[in-house]
Amino acid sequence: MSGDLTLYHWEPNANSGKPMLTLVEKGVPFHSHYIDLLAFDQHKPEYLAINPMGTIPAMVHGGRLMNESTAIMEYVEEAFPGPALMPADARDRWRVRWWMKFFDQWLGPSLSMLGWNVGIGPKVRARDPDELKAAIDRIPLPERRVAWRKAIYGLFSEEELAESTRRILIGIDLVEKTLGEREWLACDSYSLADINAFNSAYFLPISQSEHCNDEKTPHIMRWLRAIYARPAVKTTWAMGRTAMSDRIKIFEGEEVKPW
Amino acid sequence: MVMTLYHGEPTGPSLTVLAALFESGLDADLRAIDLAMGERHAGAIPLNIEANYSVEGEGPVLVVDGEALCDSVFIACYFDDVAPGSGLRPADPYQRWEMMAWCRWMIERVAPGVAALANRSWTTPRLAALDEAAFAAILESIAAQDLRERWQETREGALSDEHRAASEARVHEATKKLEDRIADRDWIMGDFTLADLESYAWIAPMRELLPDAFVGKPRLAAWLSRVAARPSVRRALQQARTAHSAHGFAPGPEINRWG
Question: Which of A63, A198, B96, B256 has the least CB density, counted as fewest CB within 10 Å?
């Protein structure tokens, strides 16, 4: 099975972490292929030969390529046996999809804009300028070229960053309210929505520590710790290769560095 | 289970949901509302976090036993979950992945462009004709600030040259992708699915505003005719209450804030 299934991923974080944690929760063996985002491995010819979009993650199963992390999660749930990560009730399933889209398209871009601005951009900015320019020119999707250019050269406007912060604070409020009403994000059982959201939300007590903490958002903290306690999370985060994957130790009560 | 579908004119997301309902064979009480006059927020619909923060903006709402469900693709998935065998989604997990990834592209990349062009042409004059008090009353009823801002921009007719060009490029990209996709098949996934409805609902209204995007694409023209001839789509189009029902847009999804 594992020879047949390969996941191309970066750190257990955001989009890469979604299919990683889903596969581990399902107990599906897979060949893990680490792509170093900060070295622009995802835009190199050998990876573009596998995923022409040059995005991570991507999964190859039975010789067929899949991208779009959330769509991959639903595929893993449907194609393999293992513990159910989608609820049986149709309305619960609708809520799982709604919350994944909220994280993917409304909250996610704001979280990643701030993360790229203070984390990823400065990490790669120190490289040789010609190398960086060549790396940007190789990016296949035009919108990703724009995003990388902004991240690398710190071109996000004050308005963009302020709007991202505004949305993150609203997102924290909406998630806190929702988790005040039910144990898990979308329904009464752990689901793909929790896996999707955790991969961004685990960072909130670090990046937004003033707004996301035991005092102000007890339900979010309870939920994050419940997910962190799952063995699959330990296994998944052990696949990280950089200090980023140590951030999760905040749930052990350790002091962690954001970047 | 009691279902009430609050829908706008049969165009865009309301067309997808109406036709998907008819494909599923399920029963719902149909309530036509004027989305561009803010009737989604007028009090009849029990708006929840999900409906207030829907990434789709002013789309149709399905109320099931008192809970509001939104986002056209996910409402259609809900119908398919309740009525398995509707054919709205393929049965094979890989084909499902492909269909969900296609719909995600349509929702995230194409729909915001279509919404921007359609609203500028057809919704702006309607909102501009409202007096200040009437428009202020609509704004006051809307929970999400970014959605309120899209309403204001629509009323002002604010569509920059850059935003217009990006929106038009998305429509051109979509019609070309459809023309290529239909080369060896009648429907996007081979068999008819939700992908055909979602794509038709956003693309068909552009024939009037951006005819250039349809020139020299005979397969696209034939596909548009095939979709329009489906009994479910004909019945959905019969729900029209105005002479130009394709114009019945309302502030919808925003263009992805960064890449």
Answer: A63
How far apart, in whole angstroms, are the C-alpha atoms of residue A179 and residue B169?
Answer: 40
Instruction: Search chain A and give the residue with CA nearest B259.
Output: A143
Summary mean pLDDT of chain B: 97
**Mean pLDDT of all residues in chain A?**
94
The minimum CA-CA distance between A252 and chain B, rounded to whole Å, is 32
In contact, B193 and B90? CB cutoff 8 Å: yes
Cα B245 to Cα A201: distance, rounded to the nearest angstrom: 42
Nearest to A147 among B64, B96, B258 (CB): B258
Categorize the per-residue pLDDT at A3 as very low, low, confident or very high, splitting at 50, 70 and 90. Answer: low
Instruction: Decide if A143 contacts B259 (C-beta within 8 A).
Output: yes
What fold is seen in the domain A5-79?
Glutaredoxin (3.40.30)
Tracing tokens 């029902």 back to the chain, one arrives at B245
- The answer to whether domain A90-252 has CATH 1.20.1050.10 is yes
Taking the Cβ of residue A164 and every Cβ of chain B, the question of whether any pair is shorter than 8 Å is answered with yes
Tell me the mean pLDDT in the region A250-259: 89
Predicted pLDDT at B48: 98
**A207-216: per-residue pLDDT in tens?**
999 999 999 9
CATH of the domain at B240: 1.20.1050.130
